[in-house]
Write a structure and sequence with these properties.
- Chain A: Belongs to the CPA3 antiporters (TC 2.A.63) subunit D family.
- Chain A: It is found in: Cell membrane; Membrane.
- Chain A: InterPro entries: CPA3_Na-H_Antiporter_D, ND/Mrp_TM, Proton_antipo_N.
- The structure holds two protein chains of two kinds.
- Chain A contains 19 helices and two strands.
- By secondary structure, chain A is mainly alpha-helical.
- Chain A has one domain.
- Among the domains of chain B are: about 240 residues, no CATH class; about 70 residues, no CATH class.
- Chain B is mostly helical.
- Chain B has 21 helices and four strands.
- In chain B, helix 3 packs across helix 17, helix 10 packs across helix 20 and helix 14 packs antiparallel against helix 15.
- Chain B has a two-stranded antiparallel ribbon with strand order 1-2.
- Classes of the chains: A mainly alpha, B mainly alpha.
- At the A-B interface, helix 6, helix 8, helix 9, helix 11 and helix 15 of A face helix 5, helix 6, helix 20 and helix 21 of B.
Amino acid sequence: MEGRILPLFVAIPLAGAFLVPLLSKLWTRFADLIASITSALLLGVSVYGWLMVNAGGMPLHYWVGGWRIIGIAMWFDALTALIVLIINIVGFCASVYSIRYLDRYTGGRWKFFTLLLLLIAGLNGLAISGDLFNMFVFIEISAIASYALVAFGTEEEEVEAAFKYMVLGEVGGAVLLFGIALIYARASTLNLAHLSQVLAGFGRTPFYWFVIATLLIGFAIKMGMEPFHAWLADAHFSAPAPISAMLSGVFIKVTGVYAMSRLMFNVFGVSRAETPAFFNLLIAFGAVSMVLGGLLAYTQNDYKRLLAYSSISQIGYILVALGIGNFWGIAGALFHILAHALGKGTLFLASGSVERQTGTRNLEQLKGLEKTMPATTWSHILASFSMAGLPPFAGFFSKLFIIIGAIAARMYWLAFLAALFSAVTLGYLTKVVNMAFFVKQNSSVTSTREAPGLMVLAMLVLVVLTVAVGVGFRGVLDHLVGPAARVLLNGLEYARLVLGG
Amino acid sequence: MLAHPFILMVLVPAVAGLLGYLIGRLRNEFSFIGTVASLYYAIRLFLLSRSGEPIELTILAIGNITAGLRLDQLSGFILLFISIFTTLILFYSFRYMRGRESTRGFYLYSLLILGFANGVVLAADLVTLFFFWGGLLLLLYAILLIGRGETFRTARKALLLVGLSDFAMLLGIVILIVRTFVPGGWIDLAPRVPLPLYDPAMIAGFVLIAAGALAKAGAMPLHTWIPTAAETAPVPVLALIPAALDKLLGIYLLIRLTVYMFDIASNMVLRNVLMAIGAGTILFAVMMALVQKRMMKLLAFHAVSQVGYMVLGIGTGIPVGIAGGLFHMLNNAVYKTGLFLAGGSVEHWAKTDELEKLGGLARQMPLSFVSFLVCALAIAGVPPLNGFFSKWMVYQGVLAVGTEGNRLFPVFLVAAMFGSVLTLASFLKLLHALFLGQRPAQLERVREVPLTMWLPPFSLALACVVFGVFAYQLSLRGLIIPGLKFHELSLSGVWSPIPASLLLLAALGVGAVLYLLSVAVKPQAGRTFVGGEQIGYSEESRVPGTAFYSSVKHMPIIGELLIFGERGAFDLYNWLVGIFRVIGYVFREGVDRALKALVEFIGRLIYYFGLGLSRIHTGNLPLYLSWVFLGAVIFYLLLFLR
């Protein structure tokens, strides 16, 4: 099906990013307005695209300029629908939240929103792009915007974190470019669908494995898998809270997990039966990330650093689930991407509210905020329950699917480990609840007021969605996550759909 | 479908709770309506279930998989008592909770708990059951945040302990689903043919789900949040959750597992494990109870100890034992709720539950005293009260296990009987400390509590008598036996409660007559002559009974021993208490502390491991790059150079 809306996913945020600096010269608040309207429009377009794909049952495609194969290809199937929905839900909440959150900083409002819109443009572009080089370009657009956003506060610590993030991120980018160059040298095409057919003709040669390993290193850095994770905690910790929510909730999963899965499953055609080495590698590194990330989070006394390490642990869950490789595993991974984006987004926004109202994130200084900040407290608690996998929240079902997948694949130890680290997750998130929100004790660091209405609204939207996805898990599985998982499971079917359509 | 009574059982209390929360002024009214409506539907469903045919309602049907609700005789019986207990306890709390903190939350959570508990009992399959079960976990966390002191610690402890067992249960459910997947549904709670219990995966599933049920009921070793909750939670919360609903739900699931889903009788090892858990729980918890100095904590340990009898009875796998366990669950809920509520009335006036500061309240609070006395005698297993009858059935079950050739049965029997004796001893102490003995000066102005507070425990005490005296006619035939799949029980031994109670009443009458007679005979004072001269009354001439044998003290050796004895050295009770104190001490210091130390050790291990991991994150960029390089080498090794 021809999808004329597809260029909008990139055009809208780019136009917004262009308008923000121009119009905010007239009135600084135009920056807020444009960012919110742009992200709301994007959310609308995403929902529309999802409904189209869901109703028609056929993916949307668009060839820029009508040049097939050699031109720029855009592609929107069930998996893309899931990913753009996640990007734009969290993106919308982050933009709305930032309006009041930015009061902390003096000036620079238009720079912030321009960069945020560029970040969103890069992520959306990556999700819809149908050729390898464009994927790389969009990864880099969003990555460069995120380096600048991490340094936004321009304190020493933040600049240092941004620098490290940039060095490691660019190492990843360089490795990716190297892998892409190898592919182009050998296959002479970059269109994903065409490429997959060419690669299938080569067979499982050493070249095939070398390219997979090279690309995996690049993606591993982007997603913060152990031991490529070192930049993540510093960067997510130093960024402004809404950016942390975007990075932890969306960025690492789209540029890391989504891009990797799209290439590996749909282009390289990996499958549990034929290439077990790839899947075992994901399980091994995923399990290590899950364990080490969880342990690292347990010891932190800084609200945001704890959440950042927790993200590494949750990425571990997603990788393990992908590595299981059957339907429940992959559906669990995609469901967990959704649940984690909503839950971790809420948690980072809550940490931002606490920091804005009290001026600190040190858990040993924060006390008794439940009385004065009930909405923030309960957003945090509900999101924690979701992250720890308690029913009936979204996180419960993702972990349930992962455990079902592990048991169906007869990996009982993995099921056990997943259940055990749910308890560890609950442990470190309730630690925050107890230390910051419930201990009744006089402390110099306390807040007398709830966070401003717009910030609370952004958190509540995410919390309500967490509950709704959990309660309506059946619908989400049938219409959003299930079809997306089938796209990955069908593997090389992708090329036939693109080129036949 | 919304108007179906099954759905209403879940929805009506929840909606009433929410309305009461929103419209704070009509909180009591809405709570009352919610519980009474639940009670009304429970009675209707109970009567409906008597026909014997299960009634089904499908909620979700996706392809072959159906999830739904079902009413049979067992769930009808449990539903009825869930509503009865909740109604009594909420009735009590209208006065008790007045003016306390977080009352709004209390009513909201209690009613939601009622709705979810109804849902658990009505669930027809394990997945539906787990949905409600998980909801109860969150509500437990929420309701334990109410109270005084560091409630959030209690709540967190309960959340982690119960949450752990819920994870175990979830794992068990998934194992069962994967292993036995048949078109037609999730794992049914009452399949036509019980599942086999010799395949390792099925046994693992059984054990994991049973762990969830046992933790809910409060059996060792996942019980420790209950005594902690006794320190912070208000009395109605204690009466509602650990005393009444958790027992009903935990034992309900255990019966479903052992009688309906599997046939426990087919696996001797599992039976022994269950019986050992039961016997151990009885003995260790009651010893812990003996050394407590606070009423609520003492009662909480008994709430744990009594679970032992139920688990022991069900673990026997013999019909009479299982019926005894189920009957004991009902009886325990009756008298334990009564004890918590009557004790709560004392605490309500005295503002403390420390035993040293209480005493001598029998005259001022006669109705509470009588309720407490009857419930205490019932828990101690004094005939003809209900506690005796169910314990007696459990003993019979254990004896029957012995006739099957189980060598361990004397251990279980002795543990259970011993536990009973110690329960009596600890309740004598408690009765003395609360109602008899000397009254402290600050309690002079204590009065009886108002009707809404004395009536619930009083009616529960009455129920103790009725369930005991008419055990065959009312409790067993009417409630217990239809709830199980066995049609008739073979009760051996002769115990007919009605004549026995008549005899007991006669004996009490004779005792009363003797007492009156002894009061009528007054001590006679004669005149004292010394050397033919009469001397007047003097205090010196009064001989107190205790000094009668004082001359014996001057005899060698025997005298020494007697002086020793006077100090209590030969008192068997002191010896026993001493021994148990030592055992309790060793248990607390040895096992409890060791477990705690182990948990702390693991926690610290995780902490230091994490700390070590944090330490190597020095912020040094070349180091980070070298990690990346290391990871890259591993990737190439694993994928390319295989």
